[in-house]
Write a structure and sequence with these properties.
mainly alpha, single chain, globular, 110 residues
Length: 110
């Protein structure tokens, strides 16, 4: 599966804290996940997460979900929409890391 497809799957869905998540995932993998978030998710949600084919992924919007709920959306996708499942490409920890980024380290506040 292409990097673009993997990234798209990551985008919709969501750190207990950045520090605790970072200790669970290697620095190199965090860098890969960040690229995935902004490049692949950005292909639908906009390179700055302000929206495009998919909705904006603002911090305010992402905080409407629990971390686990957002991670679940990332892993399972949203049936009937263009949001694919990323479960074949990401672990639960990686999906939670992405959710944490969207909820706590998101450059798009609103």
């Amino acid at each position: 599966m292409s990097l673009l497809i993997r990234t798209l799957m990551l985008c919709i869905l969501g750190l207990t804290s950045l520090q605790s998540s970072a200790s669970d995932i290697a620095q190199e993998r965090e860098e890969e996940l960040e690229i995935l978030l902004y490049q692949d998710c950005g292909s639908c949600h906009g390179m700055t997460l302000k929206g495009g084919l998919g909705p904006a992924l603002s911090q305010e919007r992402m905080n409407r979900y629990t971390r686990e709920g957002l991670a679940s959306l990332i892993l399972q996708g949203i049936p009937g929409t263009a949001m694919p499942s990323w479960g074949a490409l990401l672990t639960e920890k990686e999906a939670r890391w992405i959710a944490d980024q969207l909820q706590h380290n998101n450059p798009l506040k609103r």
